[in-house]
Amino acid sequence: MDMDRTTGTYPLDELGDFKVAESDIDPRGWDVMSSDRQKIGSVKDLMVDVEAMKVRYLVCDIDREQTGSHERRVLMPVGDARLDDNDDLVLMDHTAAFIRQLPAYELGGRIARDQEDSVLSRRALADAPPVDGGYYQRPEFDSQKFYGSRYSGDSNSAGRESEKGMLGRIADSIDDLKDRLDANPNSRPGRDVTDRRER
Prior knowledge:
This protein is of the alpha+beta class. The chain has 2 domains: 9-155, Photosynthetic Reaction Center, subunit H, domain 2 (Photosynthetic Reaction Center, Chain H, domain 2), CATH 3.90.50.10; 163-199. The protein is 20% helix and 20% strand. It has helices at 64-67, 96-100, 113-120, 143-147, 165-181; strands spanning 9-11, 31-33, 39-49, 54-62, 72-77, 81-84, 89-92. Strands 1, 2, 3, 4, 5, 6 and 7 form a 7-stranded mixed beta sheet that branches. The protein starts with 8 loop residues before the first strand and ends in an 18-residue tail after the last helix. 25% of the residues are buried.
């Protein structure tokens, strides 16, 4: 098992000095529902990018009733799901049939890039190159979509409050307002590439 835990993406349960930020919900143990409203399993663990201190994937245990034989685990990028914290559910953007076709994942250690590519290759957007900023700047890794109204923006999904803090949030809000006043066609609500600093 890889002991260099300064780079890469690992199961949160293996990272003893990491925890879900207080401002974020910990969905481990929550039921997972497909887009066609079938209970497909539960969240076993979270895969954390230790450099960015962000959750990149959910590790989902798929129920025996769904697989037809035995339980298995799959990885789901966080942007393919959203939290329903009223009912403690994780709602997937994909049907149960789609999720059953995902490659099996054996929990433990650093996830290899070819495993990630295998998961992403099942999606229509996977053939599109990542936007400027790197591998995790795809819609599939949109933490804001996953956490919804509970998205803390400047806190990390796993780790501690980021250095930007309240002043950074205020500055980001001012940037968004300036973009709207300037009628910047590339600006979107919330964080985007037109904002004052690299995300």
